[in-house]
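Risk register update: the risk of archive-format incompatibility is retired. Evidence:
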Amino acid sequence: MNSQQQIQIASTLPSYLKRTPWDERALGMETFEVTDSSDAVLRSIAKARYPGHYTVKVDSLASKQALHTYGFYYCDTLIEPFCRQGCLVELRNPGVSLSRNVDLSQIRDICDGAFIHGRFHRDFNIDRHLADRRYSLWLEDLHNTNSVFGLKYHDELAGFWAFSSDRILLHALAESYRGKGLSKYFWSLACQMLFDQGASEISSSISVSNSAAINLYISLGFKFRNQRDIYHLLIE
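Archived output:
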């Protein structure tokens, strides 16, 4: 492909490609979500060879033959936990509380290295520090919109819990607080806060390989839907 053809593609983005500027900012390259996984579209992307990082999400039961044929590679399988008003299991611990007043530098330290099982960390074509940077920048954006709870245990910062409207987006506990059975109390309190603010349903997205998170959501009354396999393609 010559430079003129590349410029034309960049200026007239096909309808089946959606730019993901939050990923582009972190990875330092053009990034796209492919919204149509048909054979014709995948073949067109592979043939065009326009440089960038491409993500496509497909039903887990769908055939993956075309994806493999055109160079896409598997990264993760995501599933959507959801809970409706009145179904949340409320669990309380007197030492657990939430705070809107949370220092960005402190939660950044907790965020660093907390998402090593995310799909960008599992993508062998992405440097680990770039995958870490993606989560750090995402957390910063959420903090700037006042969408982060600090998770406090006996008034000490134990983690963070970030959301947008009725969707849980990003959360982590500091290493010293993991494995102590505290997550269910933090999550129950934070979810109830969203319901109290008017949410009729809360949802999230997690990897099916994250058994700890799945068990946590089950313990709080969540159900699951919309399982999707995630495939990537890097064209340099």
